[in-house]
Amino acid sequence: MTNLDWGVLIFYFIFTIGLGVIIGKKTTDISDFFSGGREFKWWAIGLSVMATQISAITFIGAPGWAYEQGLKPLVLNLNIPIVMWILSATFIPFFYNLEIISVYEYIEKRFGKKMRLLLVFTYIIKMLVVVGSIVYVPSLILSKITGLSINTTIALIVIVSIFYTVLGGIQTVIWTDVFQMLALWIGIVISIITVFKVTPYSLSEIF
């Protein structure tokens, strides 16, 4: 890695933690921590949702998947914008108007505490598997490009993520997602331009 690469990496971690510190000073109670005062702009929420759907596994694995199977991955994911539109038009306003913090709060009101505990338990089990793989992939890449051990990069990612989340709550999560999404878009544009420049094929041949 060059000094520029290290600079970008270090800046990102410092920026993320700094954002958590700044927002954390404005978080006054548990409601602010989990709901952010219900004051977010629609575009920030939208970018955060998009960033949540696109993990390092997607960004790194999807090109390989597309290379092996052509446009099949695109077709399989065409339903996502449709589903998001339906959710935004139906379920989201319903839960928003109830002024609840999580869907599990609604489950308890609707079906009782036992059902809520059951769903929370199954969700935690699922996320232990999902988050484990989501953390492992970028940790593996960071390990390869920085020369640090895989255990070190895993610890670095987990500690920074927990730190800024605990400091600022959902506000920090959403704003870091926004900046991550912008970084992803910039990276995608640069990647596309680079590929077109170095590939000895025409645009139609590439497609």
Please provide a brief summary of the model:
With 207 residues, this protein is mainly α. The protein contains 12 helices and no strands. Helix content is 84%, strand content 0%.
Descriptive report:
By secondary structure, the protein is mostly helical. It folds into 2 domains: 1-24 and 101-188, no CATH class; 56-99, no CATH class. It is built from 12 helices and no strands. It has helices spanning 3-24, 30-35, 42-53, 56-69, 72-76, 79-89, 91-98, 103-111, 113-146, 150-168, 170-198, 203-206. Helix 1 runs antiparallel to helix 11, helix 8 (103-111) packs antiparallel against helix 9 and helix 10 packs across helix 11 (170-198). The relative contact order is 0.14. The mean pLDDT is 82.
Strand residues, percent = under 5%
Low-confidence stretches: none
Number of strands: 0
Compute the separation of the termini in Å. 32 Å
The assigned structural class equals mainly alpha
Question: What is the N-to-C order of secondary-structure elements (H for helix, E for strand)?
Answer: HHHHHHHHHHHH
Rg, Cα atoms, Å: 20 Å
The total tally of domains equals: 2
Profile the largest sheet: none
Task: Indicate the percent of residues in helices.
Answer: over 70%
Write the layout of secondary structure elements.
Blueprint: H1 3-24, H2 30-35, H3 42-53, H4 56-69, H5 72-76, H6 79-89, H7 91-98, H8 103-111, H9 113-146, H10 150-168, H11 170-198, H12 203-206
Helix pairs in contact: 1-10, 1-11, 3-11, 8-9, 9-10, 10-11
